[in-house]
Amino acid sequence: MNVTTTGTVVAAAAAPTADFSNDTWWIWVIKSVGILVFLLLSVLVAIWAERKVLARMQTRPGPNVHGPFGLLQSLADAIKLLLKEDFSIKGADKVIYVLAPLIAVTSALLVMAVIPFGPEVSIFGVVTPLQLTDMPVAVLYILAVTALGVYGIVLGGWASNSTYPLLGSVRSSAQVISYELAMGLSLVSVFLVSGSLSTSQIVDAQTQLWWCIALAPAFLVYLVSMVGEVNRLPFDLPEAEGELVAGHMVEYTSMKFAWFFLAEYINMFNVSAVATTLFLGGWHAPWPLTLIGDGVLNTGWWPLLWFVGKVWLGMFFMFWLRATLLRFRYDQFMNLGWKILIPAALVWLVLVSIVQGVRQFAEVDLRTMLLWIAGIFAVLMVVMLVWPEKKDGREDTAEPGGRADVPATPRHRTDVLPADETFDPFAGGYPVPPLPGQKLPPSPRERRRRETSAAVTKAGTTTTTEKEGDDA
After folding, report:
1. Residue 42 Cα distances to 79, 83, 272, 419, 446, angstroms
2. Which of 36, 252, 395, 459 is 20–30 Å from 169 (CA)?
3. Closest-CA residue to 128 (of 24, 54, 206)
4. According to the UniProt entry, which residue ranges have a biased composition of type Pro residues (predicted)?
5. Quick one: DSSP state of residue 58?
6. Could you give the CA distance from residue 275 to residue 218 in angstroms, rounded to a whole number?
């Protein structure tokens, strides 16, 4: 089944709409090199742009020395990484240790192959789409390739033969499982209303209405999931500097570290490009511009500008998050993925399936129904996020660690204990610092020292008393 932009269901093969029949081998080479150059140059600009955005949001100048506006700072950093000494780890698995960063960067580079950058254009006289290739299951190809990228992180952490990289890689595998499920479920609703898994056909289905409006809840779930998928703040648990010292990359230097760094930024462009293709109309111009010249801005090379602009809008969103939010605790991180995003994506998928089923038997406007459902569902999602958690009643129970004589203490209350009284920092299940007026209990070493000192003092007092008795 295929769904046209007006909501009419027609019987057609879910095949790509892009025509690659005129392509020759040198056209493929030009497109491949163009995508590679676009990604590498975009990464250099993204590193500079992120530092500038963070600096402006924190009232700092940011890079401003190397080149105009500091534009050459990223190039200088890249050259420094290239020329740094390349250390090797004696206890590492040599082959996998080198192979891991290559897997990460290769998986990142393969995603853009099926992303449509624009409509058909003329390249040296050959009319061809601004897309390397397409297939009936292009979106499944994207999900498969991005899932392979985690093997680079996991193998890098394992092959380093070190504790912190291993912990970072294990965290990464749990993160991908949690957030890729939510991401995949959010994309299924796009498949249902577009009638295809071909990226070019999904873009054509958004000629009149972008799916970020009609499928707003799925778009919100995807936005959160894509940040978790690329290990960006507030979801950068696999490389949390305060806990794991860069996580799975801590034992890598020089260009092997640069491959991991490059893969992270390329994946940021990948998820932004997928969001643009599946939810933001792809290369189509925004609504006011579509009225100019009877849609002339949606032809030729103009759509490449709109596509790149939307991708950079997604990049700015991730920069903004990094400057605004703090890193989650791991339990908060898992709760968000398993208890909010996945249930919300499942409920929304069921609602979209019901709408599509109703439309098989009745003439109902697709856009109107989806907009009403999306509005109600978005309100429910906001309520779920802001609704306070129910008290778990641990105030009246013993500590889970087995110390029944110490009652658990709520974390954010200052009136639980009187001033200058000790409290248990592990009462809530994880360590917390003392609040004003509270004191930590003595450490085992300090407790032993006090007991020893008290015993010595008591023994000295006893000896003195006995001596005074003898003298008397």
Report:
1. 16, 22, 13, 56, 55
2. 36
3. 24
4. 431-443
5. T
6. 11
Average pLDDT over residues 163-182: 81
**Token code pair at residue 383:** 């309520």
- Judge whether 19 and 129 are in contact, CB under 8 Å: yes
Residue 103 C-alpha from the chain's centroid: 19
State the angle between helix axes of 138-159 and 94-110 in degrees (0 to 180), rounded to the nearest 10. 160
Other CB atoms within 10 A of residue 411 CB: 13
Burial grade of 130 (CB within 10 A; 0-12, 13-18, 19 or more):
buried
Question: Strand 9-10 to strand 421-422: parallel, antiparallel, or no bridges (unpaired)?
Answer: unpaired
Tokens 């997928």 correspond to 274
How does pLDDT run across 270-325, given as a tens digit for each residue? 999 999 999 988 888 888 777 776 667 878 888 899 999 999 999 999 999 888 88
226, 183 contact by CB (below 8 A)? yes
Average pLDDT over residues 393-411: 45
Contact yes or no for 101/256 (Cβ under 8 A): yes
Q: What is the DSSP letter of 398?
A: B
Amino acid 92: pLDDT: 79
Q: What does the alpha-carbon distance between residue 325 and residue 327 come to, in Å, rounded to a whole number?
A: 7
Contact residues for 23 (Cβ-Cβ < 8 A; gap 6+): 126, 128
The 3-state secondary structure of 261-289, one letter per residue: HHHHHHHHHHHHHHHHHHCCCCCCCCHHH
* Distances from the Cα of 180 to the Cα of 54, 160, 221, 262, angstroms: 28, 26, 11, 21
Q: In angstroms, rounded to a whole number, what is the distance separating the alpha carbons of residues 293 and 280?
A: 22
CA-wise closest residue to 105 among 264, 228, 233, 232: 264
Examine the pLDDT at 410 and tell me if it is beyond 50. Answer: no
Question: Which residue stretches of 58-127 are H helix?
Answer: 73-83, 94-110
Identify the burial level of 419 via C-beta atoms within 10 angstroms of its C-beta, where 0-12 means exposed, 13-18 middle and 19 or more buried: exposed
